[in-house]
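## Example pair
The file below holds two records. Each record gives the amino-acid sequence first, followed by its structure token line.
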Amino acid sequence: METLVKMEGVTKVFPGVRALDNISFEIKAGEVHVLMGENGAGKSTLMKILSGVYQPTSGKITVKGKEFTHLTPKDSYECGISIIYQELSVINELSILENLFVGKLPTRRVGGIRVVDYKGMTGRAQEVLDKVGLKRRPSQLVEEISISEKQQCEIAKALISNADVIIMDEPTSSLTTSETAHLFDIIRQLKAEGKGIVYISHKMDEIKEIGDVITVLKDGTYVGTRNVKEITLDDVIKMMVGREIKGTYHNEEIEDFSKEPVIFEARNINRKDGKVRDVSFQVRKGEIVGFAGLVGAGRSELMNALFGAEPKLSGQEFIGGREVTIRSPYEAIKNGLAMVTENRRETGFLNNFSIKQNISIVPFLKTSRGNGLIGLLDNKAEEEYAAKQKTDMNIKCRDVEQNITELSGGNQQKVILGKWMAAESSVIIFDEPTKGIDVGSKSEIYVLMRRLASQGKGVIMVSSEMPELLSVCDTTCVFRDGEIRMTYAVREATEEKILKSSTGEE
């Protein structure tokens, strides 16, 4: 099997942090090489070196027999290396067509003048869109399509460059089961064409299905490379985290929550667009209430309406037995309602702010007046909030002055959780909280959610991963077509029941 890329002795040192230490890694033609490790292990840094975003401190890279001490983005592109980032990089203001060809517009000669070949672009775009199963016109604006469709657009963007090496960073994080199955078909086709695939994922069930070999990194060091057929999932977890992960996070002391006080209640919630219809539910002390359902069922739309991020037509909300009026996120914050959003890059944190500033912004808003326009910043309080949450949330960073964009996805999520903890929110909505997060960090978040519930806070969780819902939630509401169709207590819930209720087969 031909070696397309060989990385040897790659080390990367940032100020105060050794992100990679003497890493070697190979990508072969017709092979899916799974790259795993906890958040902060160095996976993204290694791939950013390969794509030319970062320059290694030492080491060498050989691409198709040509040796480099480092790659620039131009070198990487010309060598046929393409990367699909976990955090979507599509430009909302451009069309799908323009996104696919951004920075590399094809041209043709007309009357001695070189012009953009829009006809050729459209034909090629339609070809790759069909290949990835994205049923949209190339002229469609990206801001008008869903998150899962944006993910498909990213995959199409990689395919259109005719890359020989394609790096996929959590490519299924926003895809439905059927979209994931289609992606795997595409990957198998690319393998057959002799492409080398680097597949970064934290979903254990995907490894066995699509991977050929697996390399594990831990704290910037190389742990080992194994054949997927010869390794168990328990072996992978031990290599990644060096410890056993708890299998269930239910409140085992309380089985019947009916006698516990109601922490949060939604009554007859409706949206004007019909995506949420007459939804009512309660969250009691010690209880974690989960929302299952297919992508597009309306779960996120419900949570956005409850949080005031999107308007609701009618309905009431109660926190601690008191009716609250929430027409905006600011009113939600003032009333003690928090929301960890699905898309952390766009709505979860402030990109140009430090860890300290991101953590302290919500406590500031909670004590401010005039929709956050009136109030005083307290530098000492900022320092205290940040220091406490860095410790409590186990945030891996150089210091709290570090820009949040420099952190791994898992540590960014911990900062987001930290800001709501600092604000002492009464009710926390978790919308896909472990998306793109490693198994160790997932475990930490589950433990945190359970701790919050036991402290008397309302905990609501939206997740598209049924094993996650079954291991964490005490009650699971199945959402379909804007309505709660079934509600299962923990002892009743099974994957089969939830799936049938989600698809209308119950």
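Second record, same layout:
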Amino acid sequence: MRVSNRRIGLAAALVAGLLAVLVACGGGSVGTNGTGSPVLVGLNVGTVSGLGSVIVDGTRHDDSAAKTEISRNGTDVEVGDVRLGHRVSLEFGTDAAGTQVLQRIELLPSVSGRVSERTADTIGVLGQTVTVNSDPARGPVTTFESPLSGLADLQLGDAVDVHALTQRTGSGPTDVRLVATRITRRSALPGVRVSGAVAALSTAGSGGARSFRLGALTVELPSAAALQPQGIALLDGRTVTVFAPESAFDPATLVLGASLVQVMSVGTAGSGSAGVASTLGRAGLVGAWTGSTFELDGVGLLVQADTQIVSPGQALGDGAYVQATAVLDSSGRWRATRIERLGTAAAVAELRGTLDDWSATAGTFRLRDTVVTLAPSARIDLAACRAPSLADGLYVEVRGASTAQGLTASTVVCAPEPAGTKSRLERHGLVLTADAVARKLTMRHQAGGAVLTVTWSDSLYLREPLTMAALVALAGTSSQIEVEGTLSADGLQMAARKIKLRTTRH
């Protein structure tokens, strides 16, 4: 395995194994021919609504033992960082005691590329139409990562990661839209990626070349391109993720030459895995609703008489934001067992962490890389900390509403800083020494204060623009860093999960 500071190389066999774990059914036609993957596992996909333990669509998960990763080219994984509005898949396993634990969080941008089109309320990226949502009743509100505050801040040619919900709006191959949950502008593109349901798959042409549609995008799959996992069929309706170098996209014709296509599919009862339980959990926007079938984020589901539907006060239909669980039936199709309308409940955001960059004048602070603005009627409870007022360094729990720029807090409760290896804490200060080989640095919060020794592993996330070389070069300078990780009982050792340059607004 090739290991670098921020990237872990994976062998082809490992990729195939990873895909076998992270599989999902795409489209109502999947499974009708018995050619799906023979692996049947559960897959949980949703939108991050809280941090301090990761919260996905209102459900909290202990992420202390979880790796966070993202693939940029389909063959390597890069250490990632979870933020509000990210679309993620959650992979669970069991620890030595047999307890279920969250082992892996995969970041799932719907499209990574350059803005090639822009209107007042949409952008086009790799042939995908991206819109935003400001109404919490319609699902997660679109969050823009600083310095962005809205679509108007994006220019043609900007590189972006777009996390989004996919909604089918009609029966045609281009009748899909992406409703963004988070948009991030990137400084560079190591490659492009786009996910969606295959449509208009062509028959093999000269040299074995094939093509298909993802929305308005035409994907060309030359004979030399890899199709993963090995032996899987490429069919209309199946959900895929396409990887390619940036140079392989023609914005004039909306044609992309793929270097790798990952087919995200599950096996059927006819594929040799009959009797193996398979469950799916997914939150997204209902599309193509008929009352007996619908599509949810590219996955076709059946609605039957025994499907439990929780939708107080209103009937389900296209555009509803729901969380669904399903099981694979004997014909290889997903049968919904429960559908719950999330509505405004999904818009409640929660953050836990160390308060920083407090401005009494503006009524704002930063928490877990999120700008928090106090609502005029916000309830502030500092009793547990015996603090006279909000201040940098307090450990707080915040609840409120997601906004385009962060979170508007309705409650702020101060709490004693938790201890133990499952608690993610933050510390900032000046770098005294740094050794990339030993994976260790020392830092001090203030003159005369205690020295904190920070260590890290391959899973360390360095926030742009920080690199390992730049981190080492900070030793002895006046630039501060912020470290997030687990703290020893004596407060003098920290195992870092994330390091970033610290900046303040005042």
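Notes on the second record: The first strand starts at residue 7 and ends at 9. The CA atoms of residues 320 and 430 lie 48 Å apart.
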